[in-house]
Amino acid sequence: MTKKERKTYTKREASEYNAFRTFFQFLVCKIGYLIRVKLIYNLKVEGLENVPDDNNYIVCANHLSTLDPPLLCAVLPRNISFMAKKELFDIKFIRWWLDWLGAFAVNRESLGPSTIKTAMAIKQTHWVLGIFPQGTRGVPGEISGVSKGFAGLAKLTKCNILPVGITGTEKATHIPFSGNITVKIGKVIPYDKNPDIVREKWIEQIQELTGFKYIEDNEVLEKDGAEDEKQREKL
Question: For residue 234, is it within any domain?
């Protein structure tokens, strides 16, 4: 995939969130995927009354599994356009799939102007933006690696934050009704001029919604170092 081709997936216009993509996501997630989830997992969704009637918000959830994006598209009322790491768009089939589901490519290290323009474009449609503030999949029971980029984007777009806590998706299974997934939707966090305030409020709510504990990045490094030391001792 060339650099020029990749750029076409880092920025979307409002017109791209058309009836075709809306129907495709509805068909794939709200019908196909939701049926599969309900056949395999005991799915519980709480807090739908906290979802605003308008689309002036960004869905921000903790991240445990590749199941999370389609799950949120399936259970929340509006279509969601998720940010996806740009490396995924290097794979032809996945690129096509993500494209039609309305996702767009981002550099996880830094959000460029195209990301901001896409977020503003989404606000002009009936869709909402979806972000995983951890940036990548986390460890069950823990919340870590939370950047304040999502809070900064909320400030720039004047969108509030809808916190969503997910538990159970990390346990992959194919046996009917053998798993348990819970999605809890928290109360809207208003955007603020100070991104740190929004980040702290999101962490606080996600801890309450999931029961997970927030761990500072330096604690994660210390924990990883201790685990590496144990492995060396075993060798």
Answer: no
Residue 47 in any domain: the answer is yes
The one-letter code for the residue type at 98 is L
Percent of the chain as helix, strand, coil, to the nearest 5:
45, 20, 35
Q: Would you call 110 helix, strand, or coil by DSSP?
A: coil
Q: What is the CATH number of the domain that holds 181?
A: 3.40.1130
99: containing domain: 3-229
Nearby residues of 161 by Cβ (< 8 Å), 6 or more positions away: 57, 58, 60, 150, 151, 154, 188, 189, 190, 191, 198, 201, 202
The answer to whether 167 and 182 are in contact (CB under 8 A) is yes
Q: Averaged in consecutive runs of 10 residues, what is the pLDDT profile of the chain (235 residues)?
A: 55 94 97 94 97 97 95 97 88 89 82 88 97 90 93 96 97 87 98 96 98 79 44 41
Does any domain span residue 65? yes
Output the six-digit token pair for 194.
Answer: 């100070």
Give a yes or no: residue 72 inside a domain.
yes
